[in-house]
Task: structure prediction
Amino acid sequence: MEKRKLGTSAVEITPIIVGTWQAGKRMWVGIEDADSIKAIRAAFEAGITTVDTAEVYGEGHSERIVAEALADVRDQVQYATKVFANHLKYDQVIEACDRSLKNLKTDYIDLYQIHWPAGAFNSAIVPIEETMKALNDLKQQGKIRAIGVSNFSRDQLAETSQYGRIDSLQPPYSLFWRQVEQDAMPYCSENQISILAYSPLAQGLLTGKFQRGQKFAPEDNRSANKLFQGENFERAQQALDKLRPIAERHHCTLAQLALAWLIAQPQANAIAGARYPEQAKDNAKAADVKLSTEDIAEIDAIGRIVTDNLDNNQVMWNW
Result:
């Protein structure tokens, strides 16, 4: 798979990235470690060399699973992980990074990201200058190669950039969830900041596998996802019906079509999770789907059946 430059850093990433929130098990149901390890390894063997995780995914469990899957090919992969909103004071960032290094069985992290801005989830308000001082120091020490942020608005991104180089933004972004296009995306394009889109398949909705009447267990985070509720879900089904003929035309699945559309957007790369090896392999094939300008415009218009009826709140869940 052809690689892309991460921001202006020396790190190169694949446009499809394997996401490992589910490997942490917390807020997901029916996840087995053996399946997660096989799925991450299958992604690597299919050409996806970049993997995204976070300390908060199962309190380090996801990071340890990533290490188990990829430790023997560490020199061929790029690790992206995140420090959570409750660890943004200087000393906490340093300690969190050291924990992640240990969990990942590595002596450097390719991309280290602030997971949520200070204050999120009732965390302490920490000046961004303090957090960035820690991240800059870690970068200088060679423990991290690039700095990124996740779930930041354009204004937060611009403020953070005053204190050091930010090479990536990780927002929720898919054909069915596009607030970032109006907010931070123009800033990212102007400043060569890579977008690493999470939930690029709208937590599986864009695969077309969830039919009308779908119910999730209360402990499954998708039970609180706005896209799976009421009229939003009904509009998504209408859009999927219109997308199916385009996928057939390109001899690909709905999921591959949605990923191909996303990685054709400015600065955009897609973090796609996979429970099983087959899903990981299928995600990798999206990089081979070539869409024309007309295809992209047609898909874009269909996606708006859903997105034109959403508000500007970037958080995808009713938490």
Q: What stands out?
A: The mean pLDDT is 94.
